[in-house]
Amino acid sequence: MAIEERRYPGELASPQQVQELAEEYRKAAKHLLQLGRPGKPLTRAPFRLAAIHAIELYLTALLLHRGHNAGDIRKMQHDLAERTDHAQRAGLRLRAKTARHLQSLSQNREYLVTRYGPELAATASQINRLTATLEEVAVKVTTLIALSPSALHAAGQAAGGEVQDWDSAASLSAATANPMT
User: Fold this and answer.
1) Is 44 a domain residue?
2) Structural domain tally of the chain?
3) CA distance 80 to 165
4) What residues pair up with 37 in beta bridges, in sequence order?
5) Is residue 171 part of a domain?
6) What is the pLDDT of residue 2?
7) Does residue 177 belong to any structural domain of this protein?
8) What is the pLDDT, as a whole number, of residue 4?
9) Which residue among 2, 94, 142, 155 is least crowded, i.e. fewest CB within 10 A of its CB?
């Protein structure tokens, strides 16, 4: 009797599939946010969980897109600081405030607090900040994944120059996706 090798869920997923899953969690977070009640931090926990998970999936999608191994990404567990560091080295350009927030999400173990620590719900980051972080990561990662090398060349030509590499593409995508930052 042959032993079948069991694959880890998501191990064979494409970057686009992971990004699509992230988008569904982002949409769910948006709907869950409406269910929260002022002065009742626990009512925001479902939103927080969906938002943090969406952020994690967006960063994972970008890392896969840039050639990172799924197993190596999985070893990062839910460490958004490490994922963010790798994503930034892979070309993601975030506002300083957003990068700091992603670091603090890990340092404060917000993913675990949201899942298992109802007594700590009031200590979690502000809803406005989490929403802004989710939206920035979503827009910029989606833009980077959508920009194929040929699209980058065309975008660079339209912008008056040639895009030489992915770092330039990241800067171009950041400017295109959010011209006010």
Assistant:
1) yes
2) 1
3) 25
4) 40
5) no
6) 57
7) no
8) 61
9) 2
Selection from 28, 148, 171 nearest residue 92 by Cα: 171
DSSP 60-93: HHHHHHTT--HHHHHTTTT-HHHHHHHHHHTT--
Which value, in Å, is the radius of gyration of the alpha carbons in the chain? 18
Backbone angles phi, psi at 176, to 5 degrees: -70, -45
Residue 174 lies in a domain: no
pLDDT band at 62 (very low <50, low <70, confident <90, very high): very high
Band of pLDDT at residue 120, cut at 50, 70 and 90: confident
- Token pair recorded at residue 56: 């994690």
Please name the residues in contact with 145: beta carbons below 8 A apart, sequence gap of 6 or more.
Answer: 15, 16, 19, 61, 62, 65
As a residue count, the chain comes to 181
Cα(151)–Cα(144) distance, integer angstroms: 11
Q: Cα–Cα distance between 46 and 29 in angstroms, integer?
A: 8
Identity of residue 92: L
Distance CA 181, CA 168 (A): 16
**Which of 29-38, 57-66, 73-82, 87-96 has the weakest average pLDDT?**
73-82
Going by C-beta distance under 8 Å and a sequence separation of 6 or more, which residues neighbour residue 72? none
> Which range of residues forms the domain containing residue 138?
15-146
